[in-house]
Design a protein that fits this description.
This protein is an alpha/beta fold. It has helices spanning about 10-20, 30-35, 50-55, 95-105, 110-115, 155-165, 220-225, 235-250, and strands spanning about 70, 80-90, 130-135, 140-145, 150, 175-180, 185, 195-205, 205-215, 260, 280, 285, 290, 295, 300-305, 310. Helix 4 packs parallel to helix 8. The longest helix has 19 residues, at about 235-250. The chain is globular and about 45 Å long. Mean pLDDT is about 85; it is low at about 1-60. The structure holds zinc ion. Zinc ion (ZN) binds near residues 245 and 268.
């Protein structure tokens, strides 16, 4: 068990220094939250984030009263809510991850945790819906190592594109497509060293498709998981929090031009690797919420209300 540290002045300075001299560093704060204190480990955000951070830093304009700013782009506000699709890449046979992570995605609707996402809105003051739609098997598919065990960013978009163009998954502009890789698979732009997951968007079949990469932390537990297993599967239990992080970011900043702060941090970045109040599950692991029939340990998210703060529910 590890003790989490709040963001301190010292860690802010450390982050600034690292961004100043290292163009390869992703624009994310999660590294400073890592309880191991390693110089890497985070954690998420889309490829090219460092470049965007630079562009954002030069942009004038003060923070809102809630510590995160709206930049005019769309958010995922449709009445039907946000649709989640899973693409299981690699070998997941005999792994309990699909059962665990399907429960997770299928239980977010109406949860206090997802309700935090509804504090974000678009230019018409339309909020993100409190609904997350997922069902198995219709919103899942698999990919048997089409691009081997070492995936480039382009390969990951192709995994999504292939699933859509082959009609294994629908083409859905209101969807977020997760490429979930087994522990023998890496992502060459920095899985385990620069990030644990990221989200972005791209044009697939003429539509603006939102998608995310989330690797299996079993590949690098100290970098990408809390090494807690409320569901008896530390990799999958770690992935649940990373999926949560990327999903709320994709909903509030789907085209990377909506909600982020002066530092370029999206909502979940501002609370990464903080977990609020936890309890001990029957198997001895730490958890902080129950979704469906399962316990989970999910990072807090930034509430865009009341001055702004990290919380587990709203
Ligand atoms: Zn993030």
């Amino acid at each position: 068990m590890r003790v989490l540290q709040p963001l301190s002045i010292l860690s802010v300075l450390a982050l600034s220094a690292s961004l100043a001299h290292a163009g390869a560093v992703k624009a994310d704060d999660d590294a400073v939250y890592r309880p191991t204190g390693k110089g890497y480990g985070e954690l998420d955000d889309s490829p090219g984030a460092a470049a965007r951070e630079h562009a954002r830093a030069a942009r004038p304009g003060g923070a809102t009263s809630n510590g995160i700013d709206y930049h005019g782009g769309p958010v995922m506000t449709t009445a039907s809510g946000v649709n989640v699709y899973y693409i299981w890449y690699g070998d997941w046979s005999g792994n309990t991850a699909p059962a665990i992570l399907e429960t997770f995605a299928g239980s977010l609707t109406g949860s206090g945790w997802w309700n935090i996402s509804t504090t974000y809105y678009d230019a018409n003051k339309k909020s993100i819906a409190p609904t997350v739609t997922f069902s198995s098997p219709t919103m899942t598919t698999s990919d048997n190592y089409t691009y081997g065990t070492s995936l480039s960013d382009a390969n990951i978009q192709s995994v999504v594109s292939n699933a859509i163009t082959s009609n294994r998954l629908p083409k859905d502009p209101n969807g977020v497509y997760f490429v979930l890789t087994s522990a023998d698979v890496t992502a060459t732009s920095g899985f385990c060293t620069q990030y644990c997951g990221w989200h972005t968007h791209g044009t697939i079949g003429g539509s603006d498709i939102k998608y995310s990469f989330v690797g299996n932390p079993d590949r690098c537990p100290s970098s990408c998981s809390m090494q807690q297993a409320p569901n008896g599967n530390a990799g999958a239990d770690g992935m649940a929090s990373i999926i949560a992080h990327e999903l709320t970011e994709a909903a509030s900043d789907p085209d990377l031009n909506a909600w982020y702060d002066r530092r370029g941090y999206e909502n979940a970045d501002k609370c990464a690797w903080t977990f609020g109040t936890t309890y001990t599950t029957i198997n001895g692991a730490k958890a902080n919420m129950k979704l469906g029939t399962r316990d989970f340990l999910i990072q807090q998210n930034w509430v865009n209300a009341g001055g702004g703060y990290c919380a587990l529910s709203y």
